[in-house]
Write a structure and sequence with these properties.
There is one protein chain. By secondary structure, the protein is an all-alpha fold. It has one domain. The protein contains ten helices and no strands. Helix 5 runs antiparallel to helix 10. The longest helix has 25 residues. The two termini are about 25 Å apart.
Length: about 270
């Protein structure tokens, strides 16, 4: 698709906005799809959701990839746990892609909003009570933890495939509360998980009949997102304290919920 059909001005504005989202969201273990999608819906008015979601997945992938790289350099990625959760999430990805391309998603969005509000409220409550941060990440997980992790990772994959998000709004709290990881390592591990699942979801869309992917936008905008995510996560690891990151993450989850509510009310 030629840029002229979308408007050069719109493409430039989207590039600036998605770059800004990548800068901040790479610190939170979030792919940024909660904002990438609304930005493109607002400015790329001629595109359908089934065309916007694959673009968001590309942006979410490189955001997660940059976060994985910077966090792994600090030893803040558990590749073993991330791989296990990603394996469970692959089934959810396929189900999510099939859902978005064939079924009306209003009910699923309502459920997603409820989930986001519960997660954010729990994290805000812990911040209010000044709940002690996990400082030691366990090396051995019980069967109960593993089963809970696989179950929620399937949900994470479903959300990635359905809405083009990175899945961190579910996987970061999962890793913090179920596996007792400290926040920074939970974010790094979640980013690694998202870096596996988002390209899998993109590939599923690419082979889905009736889905048109705008590769010209992918080639132009994705490098911008990657560079800004790399810069943002590098800066955040040096400058932001864990408590601040956790507070920003909580705000990001609430922001995601507000975006979904807006989508429900006005689309």
């Amino acid at each position: 698709m030629a840029f002229e059909s979308l408007g050069i001005e719109s493409v430039i504005i989207v590039a600036i906005l998605v770059g800004a989202v990548a800068f901040f969201y790479s610190n939170l273990g979030l792919g940024g799809g909660q904002l990438y999608v609304p930005i493109m819906v607002l400015l790329f008015t001629t595109l359908y959701m089934r065309e916007i979601v694959p673009l968001s997945l590309c942006f979410a992938f490189v955001t997660m990839l940059s976060a994985t790289y910077t966090h792994s350099r600090k030893g803040l990625v558990d590749f073993r746990l991330g791989s296990m959760l990603a394996a469970g999430g692959l089934a959810g990805v396929l189900a999510g892609v099939m859902f978005t391309t064939s079924v009306e998603d209003r009910i699923a969005k309502i459920g997603f909003v409820i989930l986001l509000l519960i997660v954010a409220t729990k994290m805000m409550y812990d911040l209010y009570r000044a709940k002690k941060e996990n400082t030691v990440c366990p090396m051995v997980f019980s069967l109960k933890c593993r089963l809970a992790g696989v179950g929620v990772s399937i949900l994470t994959g479903f959300l990635i495939g359905s809405f083009g998000i990175g899945g961190g709004v579910v996987s970061v709290p999962l890793i913090i509360y179920v596996f007792r990881f400290e926040t920074r390592k939970a974010i790094g591990t979640s980013a690694f998980m998202g870096a596996i699942l988002t390209p899998a979801a993109f590939a599923a869309y690419a082979f889905q009949e009736g889905v048109s992917i705008n590769y010209d936008l992918v080639l132009v905008l994705t490098p911008i997102v990657f560079v800004m995510g790399l810069i943002g996560s590098t800066w955040g690891l040096k400058k932001l304290k864990t408590k601040v990151v956790r507070a920003i993450f909580t705000g990001g989850v609430y922001l995601a919920a507000c975006g979904m509510i807006y989508s429900l009310l006005f689309h």
